[in-house]
Design brief:
By secondary structure, the protein is an alpha+beta fold. The chain contains 14 helices and 29 strands. The radius of gyration is 34 Å and the shape is elongated.
């Protein structure tokens, strides 16, 4: 295709746009005339190319500042000195405006520089700093709000690089064809214009929205800043507020931040008690032998361990991020755990380097809080909260201190004598003893909750002076204790029979993951002889009790004789006392197919059920806690049990 043909296929200039640029000298008067004539369009271009992370107020002011700083410094500026070359149309030579092309090129170049991250050892360029002019005192300004389409487009553009946004704007707002866009981006300093154009292809072409008031930094709304502070403190407070705004803007620039609080958000209060709680010098530290003489055996007597307990800067960052997590902090909390700042000076449990991260673990009486940051980088901080109030010696035996590569490391209590790992699916296999460092951190072991399948289920076995106990990782800071037996008298999983039961039901534990579970009890509440001499089926109830006391989950499991896989879930409930210490009974049913092809409704209740009744699609009644009746494929029925005292109890669903 010839050059003339490609030019004829290029889109027409936008209404009011001066058309494509041509090489040639540009003097100050010509550039100034173009800037004044096309000022609203140039500011809109700068606003769209600037990174949205600057915030709307600073983005508006920076867009105006970039346009106002775009005049050539010399009296005459040639195309090679900074003007943006473009294609010449034979029919439109009179419409070409080199002044506009030069100013637009300078605006694009500065806007792209403003989006670059600051380098720690390099001086910032002028476009990367907050603008000196224009300035707005006492007001926050921002464009008028658009609709849902404009908001969605702004979000999609924010995901692009600066060069990608520039390519999209040149296409949509300037109505330029791809060859012209490539030339303009190259002249503006983009290293790979074709990659920027390809990036812009990933955003739906909703170019008409670029003309919306949502992206017009010349038509603004204004809102006041802090009126109460201005009223109370007058001119002196206004000067102090300006200093705070300047410092906050510098700390909010892209990069690692320049403050000693790392990824923490700016301070929002000056409360003496709150500031005292964030002082590293006030952190509580328990002696190494205190747990031996204390009447309590829980987190309150854990000593401060780890190689970084004396790193004041690390502790200050951890406390600051805890109180004011910034937007880059990845925070999580178990259900029912308040994620607020510390309630007074917390207790330090651990501070050390684990798996290429600096980790700090605090305890404030109600919660355990884990802070982690990559070594050498304070911007990628992680903050985890877990409720642990009411923990005893068993409940405070271990905490998750690190997760990396599908593995987990535990920080064990000082009274734990031995840590080992056991596969719940291999109950007869002896446990493997885990090595621990002097701080009590175990070697990494696979986390079962992150595994793709259920080919193994690793459990943590901890032994203290009273004997061994089993725990499992359910994706939270505190591992869940495993027990077995009737709800009124559960026992630790120590014998071969209990381990054999858990081997058949362990793969059902993901139903309790990330729910703030404290203990998980398994109860083999019934065995049922199946029709057609198919053998005896087993029924279990697995209940997870939570740290918060509410939201407990119960899951009824069914396993047919001869089944090679794990037990199948038959029913479940949440927030009910069924299968727990306050209501130690359970009732569930399944539809089962015999080898002959006949379908049956099977139901089983705990031993205290006097009779079971089916209504709905299948009607039947049986005396005692077991029921088996023929049914058609796809049948549905309601199951109700009657206790010896006449009370009726509905089955789990």
């Amino acid at each position: 295709m010839s050059t003339q043909e490609s030019e004829e296929l290029a889109p027409s200039p936008a209404p009011g746009s001066p058309g494509p640029a041509v090489p040639g000298p540009v003097d100050v008067e010509q550039a100034e005339a173009a800037l004044v004539e096309h000022y609203p369009r140039l500011v809109r271009i700068a606003y769209l190319v600037l990174p949205p992370s600057l915030g709307r107020n600073r983005r508006v002011l920076t867009a105006h500042a970039l346009v106002q700083r775009s005049l050539p410094r010399r009296r005459t500026s040639g195309a090679d000195a900074g003007a943006v070359p473009g294609a010449r149309r034979a029919a439109d030579e009179d419409a070409v405006d080199p002044g506009y092309a030069y100013v637009r090129g300078e605006v694009l170049r500065q806007a792209l520089v403003a989006g670059l991250p600051l380098r720690r050892r390099a001086l910032p360029r002028r476009a990367q700093l907050p603008p000196l002019l224009p300035q707005v005192w006492g007001l926050r300004v921002f464009p008028r709000a658009g609709g849902a389409d404009e908001l969605a487009l702004d979000q999609r553009l924010s995901a692009l690089s600066g060069a990608g946004r520039a390519a999209y704007v040149l296409r949509g707002l300037e109505r330029q064809g791809d060859p012209e866009v490539l030339r303009v981006l190259g002249a503006a300093g983009v290293a790979d214009p074709r990659a920027a154009l390809a990036e812009a292809d990933g955003v739906e072409a909703q170019y008409v929205l670029l003309e919306s008031p949502e992206f017009d930094p010349c038509s603004l709304q204004a809102r006041p800043t802090d009126l109460m502070r201005r009223r109370q403190h007058g001119r002196a407070a206004l000067a102090a507020a300006a200093a705070v705004v300047v410092c906050g803007a510098l700390l909010g620039l892209p990069g690692d931040g320049w403050g000693r609080n790392g990824a923490a958000a700016p301070s929002y209060a000056r409360n003496p008690a709150a500031e005292a709680a964030l002082d590293p010098a006030g952190v509580k530290r328990v002696g190494a032998a205190e747990w031996r003489v204390s009447p309590r055996t829980d987190f309150s007597v854990w000593p401060a361990r780890g190689g970084l307990t004396g790193d004041t800067a690390l502790l200050r960052r951890a406390l600051a991020v805890w109180a004011r997590p910034g937007p880059t902090v990845r925070a999580s909390a178990t259900p029912g755990t308040p994620p607020g700042p510390p309630m007074g000076s917390p207790q330090l449990l651990f501070a050390g380097e684990v798996d290429a991260n600096r980790v700090v673990v605090f305890h404030d009486g109600l919660r355990v809080v884990r802070y982690a940051e990559p070594v050498g980088d304070t911007s990628g901080a992680v903050l985890d909260f877990a409720r642990t109030d009411g923990a005893d010696a068993v409940g405070s035996a271990a905490l998750v201190v690190s997760r990396a590569g599908g593995n987990v490391r535990y920080l064990t209590a000082p009274w734990v004598r031995e840590a080992a790992v056991r596969d719940l699916l291999l109950p007869d296999k002896a446990p493997r003893v885990l090595t621990r460092d002097p701080a009590g951190v175990t070697e990494p072991i696979p986390s079962p909750v992150t595994a793709a399948g259920c080919t193994r289920w690793t459990a943590l076995q901890l032994r203290d002076e009273t004997g061994p106990r089993l725990f499992t990782d359910l994706g939270e800071l505190a591992p869940a204790r495993l027990t077995s037996g009737p709800p009124g008298r559960p026992a630790d999983v120590t014998g071969a029979a209990a381990r054999g039961q858990w081997a058949r039901i362990a793969c059902g534990l993901p139903a309790l993951a990330s729910h703030g579970v404290r203990t998980v009890n398994s109860w083999a509440y019934a065995r049922q002889s199946l029709p057609e001499d198919a053998g005896r089926a087993e029924w279990w109830c697995v209940r997870g009790e939570t740290w918060r006391g509410t939201g407990s989950r119960s899951v009824a499991l069914f396993r047919a004789p001869g089944a090679t896989g794990p037990a199948a879930p038959a029913a479940r409930s949440e927030g009910t006392p069924a299968c727990g210490p306050k209501d130690p009974r359970v009732l569930a049913g399944v539809v089962w197919q015999a080898r002959s092809g006949q379908w049956y409704v099977l139901a089983a209740g705990s031993p205290d059920f006097a009779s079971l009744t089916l209504t709905g699609g299948v009607k039947a009644r049986s005396e005692g806690p077991l029921l088996a009746v023929k049914a058609a494929a796809g049948s549905r029925a309601d199951l109700v049990g009657t206790l010896a005292d006449g009370r009726r109890v509905s089955a789990l669903r």
